[in-house]
Amino acid sequence: MDAGAIAKGVIDVRSIEDVVPNDLAGFTQCHFFAGIGGWAYALDLAGWPRDKPVWTGSCPCQPFSAVGKGAGLDDERHLWPAWQHLIAQCKPSTIFGEQVTGAIRKGWLDGVISDLEGCGYACGAAVLQASGADAPHKRDRLWFVADTERDKQSWEEPCIWEAGRVGREQQPVSWNRGWQDALRAFRAMDDGLQRNVGGTDAARNAIVPQIAAEFIAAAMASQWG
Fold first, then answer.
1. Dihedral angle at the C-alpha atoms of 109, 214, 170, 156, nearest 10 degrees?
2. Domain boundaries in the chain?
3. Which residue among 26, 36, 139, 216 is buried most deeply as judged by most CB within 10 Å?
């Protein structure tokens, strides 16, 4: 933010469970579970104007991740209900979100879409991998969008969009190497820091903005193109 890579704004470090709808009044864009600001950066990459309303969020993946406890919807870190409450009260016009693909098998996506459609949103989703943006690892992720202005039927068939709209026509490629190789390619294991801090955790826990930008741009083209 200080370097101008993302728009200026207020950084709120509270848990989302402590946020109430009135706290969000007056903000054009809100980024929940924002981490290092990947969603804000992705919106810029996709050409989304900084003054155009949007909410984004990547709910904690630990309840659904392969390295988590596997508690799924019963995990205390399943924070979609807290975010959904704010969405239902504030009704942002457009929402973009992300989650690990393991959440699909545990019913997370079904619940999210059901909740959003119940609030009057049309929804679309896709699974894209980081290697589609030349990242040196696979990193499948579930991406979703919800919009109040979109005709519901127009995103139902199909709801998976073509990648490759942000400066290239490249499609995701196969990547089956492990985290050790990926981190070496990032040079995240050569910075002198312990493996569980610094660049390693930032790379492991953040979204890939270039892939998020592909998804955002595809949604924009589908809706407004």
1. 50
2. 16-175+209-224
3. 216
